[in-house]
Amino acid sequence: MTAPAYLPGMSSAQYLAEMAVSHPRLRALLDPDRLDRAVASREPAAWENEFDSDSGGRGDSYRRAQRDPLVRWTGVRRLLGLTVPAGRGREVVVLDVLGGDGTVARAAALRPGESPAGLEVLTGDISGPMVAEALANGLPAVRQAADRLLLADDTVDAVLLAYGTHHIPDGTRPRAVAEALRVVRPGGRVVLHDFAPDSAMADFFRVVSRHGTVRHDYEHFTHPELRKLFEDRCPQVRVLDVYDPFTVLAPTPDRARAAMVAHMGESYGLAGHFEAIGPDAAWQLLAEAFDHTDRPTPPEHRAVRPTVRLVPEGYVAELPRVAVVAVAEKPGA
């Protein structure tokens, strides 16, 4: 029986050969035996998910929305700062486990002065089309499941699991954390990000389940669950609330609101619903879903309600969100 393709139109052997030429650092970190076992067990065929294409989910539209990688930059910048301690003084390799088509890597490249010095982001994802898109954008990327990483032991300085951790099935979350700790060097950090079940973002996901092209019935991480996942291995784990809004820049207030509606529609399979109800009603839906008036917020929380504000470059539409984030350091440095 022929093994399935590792990436669209590419075998695992072809992938390794390509990485040796295009991204030798990533190739040196990969464990070929783990990759061979994953392909031999036909794991990649089971990795198909809603982010592959719009025909089976929202992959194509999601990638269109991520053409602007700075929509989440406020939160991404904070996560990278938590992932990489200040003053490292050398190059730092971070594995972005749920990196999609490289949104975090592309955002950091566009904001080098606001990113940790010497940062290199390796993008991982379970979706073949997502990883193929990241590679097409010139980024080092690897197709792997969060609970079965393909890197060798103790190979990266830090691991980030963010923007999709709730997609990791409840039963495999301990293994995903164990895998992150396996590949990070002693003294390196693992940062896990999600939105709590009682958060505004979780409420919005219920809107997605009612009106989107795919349901969003995933269990979100609670503060105690995050702590429990790490505390046996990393007794000094911290669990924080982090301000992580969506922001879109445009030349006028109306265009900023329209750009935000378009981004959210494409990202979450709501474009058809937003078109049916019209742009004003779509913005009102977002304004109600992301209203934090009666919710606790961290000190850096800039907006309590969705807003459009004037900045030197134009107008920013902002949807406030609060994420829950675990920061753990691997013992043994």
Automatic annotation (TrEMBL):
List residues of the Methyltransferase type domain: 95-192
Gene Ontology MF terms in the entry = S-adenosylmethionine-dependent methyltransferase activity
InterPro entries to which the protein is assigned, alphabetical:
Methyltransf_11, SAM-dependent_MTases_sf
Give the superkingdom in one word. Answer: Bacteria
Under what name is this protein listed? Answer: Methyltransferase type 11 domain-containing protein
